[in-house]
Design goal:
380 residues; alpha/beta; abc type-2 transporter like fold; 14 helices
Length: 380
């Protein structure tokens, strides 16, 4: 019995089961424990009257949606819709409420013969993420509906205090004083999840390419460092060509299979080629030191990264937020979203992150060439 307990293969399944359970529990947390904190939402007050200022103060005092456990809001006040849209194009805000210039004037006109309903506008920055902007739309709609009801009550009370009877037309206008207009900017179109559509294909394609390149040169016994670096140069060329095939082939195939139009295809393909090259070089660098055992690790990384990339950044705690920032595939996800939805190139931090990934991979590959060659047989 004691001899059986000392058998390592008896304990190995238990350890593996614990590891797998713990691993997939950790990867599932970002998508199951969702609480959005300090979601950046804006309010634009272009109204010169006191009503607009009071309304802005009232709105910004509301720091949570109707379901406060799910989302809290961090307000920023603008004095111009143009300034807001500029920041929305820079991916800073998920949504906004706009109070136009003539808000106070139109609100006061409701008690006059030439009555005009006041207008509030809700702007949704859809490119920031379909799921979260749907929540933002619901929250802002609820807020403006509550404001409409509150303004209606106050206006009817003020008119009733001044007059014993209210004309039916005026009463109708005062019962619903606001017109709520909705607008979406940076629309997602047919592909609503940005880089998530391409991430798995590009990562697995890069992983497979790196593995095959490693196999292609693993059995060769090199006689000198010069031969090793010559082979390394060939590897880099093959990696570059493969990256271009992956970068342009993945969106082209998805466009054809799904029958959708992919915006900014040329720029997107070039950026995804850079991503694929960075992934191939980095994976190959790790593989050159650790060996084939690194491949399952990178496969597991796929499952770990997927929920982090699609999560709302404001819903991640410090641990997951740091991981999301440092994962190589996060650069691809952010860059693809910028190109597809916001019509501008990836941020400098994204490009530099990919360049650092390439440099790290090259350092690992080059230093591995100085390892002692244990191959006893090989071919040129």
């Amino acid at each position: 019995m004691l001899k059986l307990l000392k058998n390592k293969f008896l304990w190995l399944p238990i350890i593996v089961a614990l590891f797998i359970g713990a691993y997939f529990s950790i990867t599932a947390i970002p998508s199951t424990h969702v609480k959005v904190n300090d979601l950046p939402i804006a309010i634009v007050n272009e109204d010169s009257g006191a009503t607009g200022e009071n309304l802005t103060k009232q709105i910004t005092e509301t720091t949570s949606s109707s379901n406060s456990s799910a989302m809290s809001i961090k307000w920023t006040v603008f004095d111009s819709e143009k300034k807001l849209l500029k920041d929305m194009n820079r991916e800073k805000y998920y949504g906004a409420i706009v109070i136009p210039k003539d808000f106070s004037e139109k609100l006061q006109s409701l008690t006059a013969p030439n009555a005009q309903k006041a207008e509030l506008k809700i702007i949704i920055n859809q490119g920031m993420g379909t799921a979260v902007t749907t929540q933002v739309n619901t929250a802002l709609t609820q807020m403006t509906t509550q404001l409409n009801n509150k303004l209606s009550t106050n206006l009817l009370q003020n008119v009733a205090n001044r007059s014993t009877s209210i004309p039916s037309t005026m009463a109708l206008n005062l019962s619903n004083p606001l017109t709520i207009k909705k607008e979406k900017v940076n629309k997602t179109g047919d592909l609503a999840n940005g880089g998530a559509h391409f991430f798995q294909s590009v990562w697995l394609g890069s992983l497979g390419t790196s593995m095959l390149l490693g196999f292609a040169f693993s059995k060769i016994r090199f006689k000198s460092l010069k031969e090793k670096f010559s082979a390394l140069f060939v590897q880099l060329i093959a990696a570059g060509i493969s990256a271009l095939v992956i970068g342009y082939g993945v969106p082209a195939l998805q466009s054809w299979i799904l029958d959708v139009n992919i915006p900014n295809f040329t720029e997107l393909g070039l950026f995804m080629s850079l991503c694929a090259f960075a992934f191939i070089i980095f994976i190959n660098g790790v593989e050159s030191w650790v060996g084939i055992i690194s491949i399952p690790v990178f496969m597991l990384l796929l499952f770990f990264a997927a929920p982090l990339l699609t999560a709302v950044p404001e819903s991640l705690n410090g641990f997951y937020s740091t991981l999301a920032d440092w994962l190589p595939m996060s650069y691809m996800y952010r860059g693809v979203k910028s190109i597809m939805y916001f019509n501008h190139g990836p941020a400098n931090s994204v490009v530099m992150g990919l360049i650092y990934t390439i440099i790290t991979g090259l350092i690992l590959i080059i230093t591995a060439q100085f390892k002692k060659d244990n191959k006893k047989e090989g071919s040129n």
